[in-house]
Write a structure and sequence with these properties.
By secondary structure, the protein is mainly alpha-helical. Helices cover 79% and strands 0% of the residues. The protein contains 13 helices and no strands. Helix 4 packs across helix 9, helix 6 crosses helix 8 and helix 7 packs antiparallel against helix 12. The longest helix has 34 residues. The radius of gyration is 20 Å and the shape is globular.
């Protein structure tokens, strides 16, 4: 990997990690639905110059139904769910939950789509889910936030379930469509779907300048710029190396939350994050276990 690609990967991890900081800063004043809607609308506006390509427009017209469904599952619903969670959860904790998506993709593929899973992947899945249980059990505390914290964590898990569906669906229905077309089209679809709810639920009290700045950063940097950066990385270094960003998002999310919102890093957060990332590394093949070397006893038994 070239230094420029590594720098782009770190920048992408930082952008997607800071998204949880921006959601935490804006969700309380905008509300979950208006913040999600403004994020999608702002990102879609930033993408308008990229729609000038006739080929991209033709792809969108030919596949608009599938792209709309991807927009619902990969953008609209996750944006709303993570914005809802941001009203109760620290930014760092929400970012850690975002790392479980590969585990859900692997588990659903094995359970319902007859996709094979090696012993290493299976062990990684078990380890990763153990980390999720540890994280929830150690962080929920039902004395600090009560049921609202529990619902917020459930929203984070539900957002990743949406990502899982979108991943499987796009791999099977729109594989021939360029990834950037899917990204632009799905965000446009999400903006259209969320627009009426954004207007209907707009807060009575105008958000502060800080909340508006967080919203603009969320839309322009963490969504539109990050999407373009991600798909360029896919083209340059491939999907396997690009997925390394999944290990950077929780780290940056925790760091940004601690730096700017003075969020504490608990033992449950640190331990759960480490266990989840280990599980993800094994499940995605980023980390492979080497078979044990044969011993003299094994040779005797074979003889």
């Amino acid at each position: 990997m070239k230094k420029s690609d590594l720098a782009a990967l770190l920048l992408l991890g930082a952008l997607w990690g800071v998204a949880f900081l921006f959601m935490r800063m804006g969700a309380a004043q905008f509300g979950s639905m208006p913040l999600a809607g403004m994020r999608a609308i702002g990102a879609a506006i930033c993408f308008i110059p990229l729609l000038l390509s006739r080929e991209r427009l033709a792809e969108m017209r030919a596949n608009w139904r599938s792209i709309t469904l991807i927009g619902l599952s990969n953008s609209a619903l996750p944006f709303v769910l993570f914005s809802y969670a941001a009203q109760s959860l620290p930014a760092g904790l929400s970012a850690i939950f975002d790392a479980i998506s590969p585990l859900l993709v692997a588990a659903s593929g094995w359970l319902w789509l007859d996709e094979r899973m090696s012993a290493t992947q299976a062990s990684g899945l078990v380890i990763g889910m153990t980390g999720v249980v540890w994280l929830i059990g150690g962080s929920i505390g039902f004395g600090h936030g009560g049921a609202a914290v529990g619902w917020a964590m459930a929203a984070c898990v539900a957002a990743n379930v949406c990502y899982t569906f979108g991943t499987h669906y796009s791999q099977r229905r729109v594989r021939s469509v360029s990834p950037l077309t899917i990204a632009i089209g799905s965000l446009l679809a999400a903006a259209v779907m969320l627009l009426p709810f954004t207007v209907w639920l707009w807060p009575a009290k105008s958000p502060t300048v800080q909340a508006w700045a967080a919203m603009f950063g969320l839309a322009a940097a963490c969504t539109s710029l990050a999407y373009v950066l991600f798909y360029r990385l896919l083209a340059r270094i491939g999907s396997t190396r690009s997925m390394a960003v999944l290990y950077l998002i929780p780290v940056f999310g925790v760091v940004w939350g601690a730096m700017f919102l003075h969020e504490s890093i608990t033992l449950a957060m640190a331990g759960g994050c480490a266990v989840i990332l280990l599980g993800v590394a094994l499940t995605t093949g980023m980390l492979k276990l080497r078979p044990a070397a044969p011993t003299a006893l094994d040779a005797v038994e074979k003889a």
